[in-house]
Amino acid sequence: MSATIWHNPRCSKSRQTLALIDAQRVPVKIFPYTKQIPTADQIADVLRLLDIPAIELMRTGERLFKELGLSKTDADDVLIKAMVENPILIERPIVIANGKAAIGRPPENVLDIL
């Protein structure tokens, strides 16, 4: 078994989640989503694995969310497009393992899928 983490090294929760995965001795692939931009299909796949609407994967508190005129009632396709164009809006970290996904907020959330 291995895991993939959508990782932002500047985020403390992302670093803590990566350390937690390492402590479990699970091989992990790091996907630096702010440098290697995910496609709309990749984001849609994560949403399916998480079984959540796009708005729940967004950092709505980011100033950019408001500057772009985004709303919590926008359609998923609008929000996914915004995340592709502005990956900093993607909630982090996301861990994918065993055909499931979890958001590491708090980091312990990912233990259930490892």
From TrEMBL:
Substrates-to-products reaction catalysed: [glutaredoxin]-dithiol + arsenate + glutathione + H(+) = glutathionyl-S-S-[glutaredoxin] + arsenite + H2O
EC number: 1.20.4.1
Domain of life: Bacteria
Gene3D superfamilies the UniProt entry points to: Glutaredoxin (3.40.30.10)
Pfam families in the record: ArsC
UniProt keyword Protein transport, yes or no: no
DNA-binding found in the keyword field: no
Cited InterPro entries: Arsenate_reductase, Arsenate_reductase-like, Thioredoxin-like_sf
Family in the record: Belongs to the ArsC family.
Stored PANTHER family: ARSENATE REDUCTASE (PTHR30041)
Protein name: Arsenate reductase
Organism: Paramylibacter kogurei
Organism lineage string: Bacteria, Pseudomonadati, Pseudomonadota, Alphaproteobacteria, Rhodobacterales
